[in-house]
Specification:
Shape: globular
Helix content: 25-40%
Strand content: 15-25%
Radius of gyration: 17 Å
CATH architecture: 3-Layer(aba) Sandwich
Order of helices and strands: EEEHEEHEHHEEHHEEH
Number of domains: 1
Number of strands: 10
CATH topology: Rossmann fold
Largest sheet: 10 strands, mixed
CATH superfamily: P-loop containing nucleotide triphosphate hydrolases
Distance between the termini: 26 Å
């Protein structure tokens, strides 16, 4: 099980079976805490599972360097996604190892890709959508980290956006992002929701098969230290595998 954070109302851990609900979308504006949330989720994932990780850091944030050998920034992201798609195609059904593609700022990447080569951008959209719809049986998953989300980022009429099985919205979301993530779902505690003004690291989470919950990502003051812990964990696992 993967710990996502804590329920702000019950103060209990929020858990998800990542082998069943593996596609994750994290949305939040600047200062919402989404980059720390992504590193926190990666830390918990790598600590508890055997993962083959591919990372695309479109905006060159520097947050993910040294965590995976399969790593790309800016214009190299397209080739990295295509390489992961090829690996997905050649992964058999009921594969036991989790293969994860994390794309940081997918929305920004897709806008850039459309401006530079619309035909290629549409091809990438199709490949991402196919993995979202069919990847679960092969344990091939996608995590998208971005400032906003809308159906326009995926091929029209396919409904690929609905295949994200864990949706996390941090901070104050736009109307479009909230609708795309949570499809009209509301907290059971309406009074709390009406008064809820998320701080950094706080927001809402919807997991397949569960009700909408208010989430708190643990406060981490030193993001650089968390990144270092991830790098050391990956290095130790590589050494143990030799």
């Amino acid at each position: 099980m993967l710990q996502l954070g804590y329920n702000l109302l019950s103060e209990k851990p929020i858990m998800a079976d990542i082998e069943i609900t593996g596609h994750v979308c994290v949305v939040g504006g600047t200062g919402s805490g989404k980059s720390v949330a992504a590193l926190y989720l990666l830390y918990n994932l790598l600590k508890n599972y055997n993962i083959k990780l591919t990372i695309c850091d479109f905006k060159k944030s520097g947050d993910y360097k040294g965590i995976s050998k399969s790593f790309a920034e800016f214009s190299e992201v397209t080739g990295c996604i295509e390489k992961y798609y090829y690996e997905y195609q050649n992964t058999p059904e009921n594969n036991t190892q989790i293969k994860l593609l994390l794309i940081d700022e997918y929305a920004g990447y897709m806008i850039w890709a459309i401006q530079n080569n619309k035909k290629k951008a549409e091809e990438i959209k199709q490949k991402i959508s196919e993995i979202l719809m069919l990847g679960r049986s092969r344990h091939c998953f996608i995590w998208c980290i971005q400032q906003r989300i809308s159906a326009s980022l995926f091929p029209s009429g396919i409904g690929a956006i609905d295949n994200f099985q864990i949706c996390i919205g941090l901070g104050r979301l736009s109307v479009d992002s909230r609708k795309s993530l949570f499809a009209g779902e509301h907290l059971n505690n309406i009074t709390f929701e009406q008064r809820f003004h998320p701080k950094t690291g706080q927001g809402l989470v919807l997991i397949d098969g569960q009700e909408l919950q208010p989430i708190q990502i643990p406060y981490i003051a030193d993001k650089a230290r968390l990144k270092l812990l991830l790098q050391r964990m990956v290095k130790d696992k590589r050494s143990a595998a030799k």
